[in-house]
Amino acid sequence: MHAQKPVVKKPVRKHVKPKKKVHRKKVVATKPPVVPTITTTPQASGAAIGSSSVLHPKSPASGGLAPIFIVIALSVAIASLSIALIPASRVPWRPVAVFVSDRQVDLTVAGFALLLATAFTLILTGGL
User: Fold this and answer.
1) Span between the terminal Cα atoms of the chain, in Å
2) SS3 at position 40
3) Which long-range contacts (CB under 8 A, 24 or more apart) does 103-111 make?
4) Fewer CB within 10 Å: C terminus or N terminus of the chain?
């Protein structure tokens, strides 16, 4: 007969789960709100009393026609340059393709002229 080795059972190990880290919120010291102080200076002369630019700074709405011109000129310039960039062979409608091919140079010049006019207006008005 054959000699058998005695069976040795290994001890059963339990799976140990790692402990979860506890994240604690940092306590931030709250500062009291800062209240701005307003100091007024007495007016030196009577000439500044009638000046509205000292009391009311220039708002964008009071610019007149310059902002309206700038927006319209930029819109038309972008539209004319984008139409001039389209090759006539890619336009599916024949009358529009003929118009684009005939007017590409004119639309390009008009777009750049409007961009220059807008830049000139921006320089003259000092921005919006």
Assistant:
1) 107
2) coil
3) 107/80, 107/81, 107/83, 108/80, 108/81, 108/84, 110/77, 110/80, 111/76, 111/77, 111/78, 111/80, 111/81, 111/84
4) N
Query: pLDDT tens digit string along 51-78?
Result: 445 444 555 555 588 888 899 999 999 9
Structure-block tokens of residue 63: 């610019």
Domain residues of the chain, as ranges? 61-125
- The C-alpha atoms of residue 107 and residue 83 are separated, in whole angstroms, by 7
Nearest alpha carbon to residue 112 among 76, 87, 86, 88: 76
Nearest to 84 by CA among 110, 58, 59, 62: 110
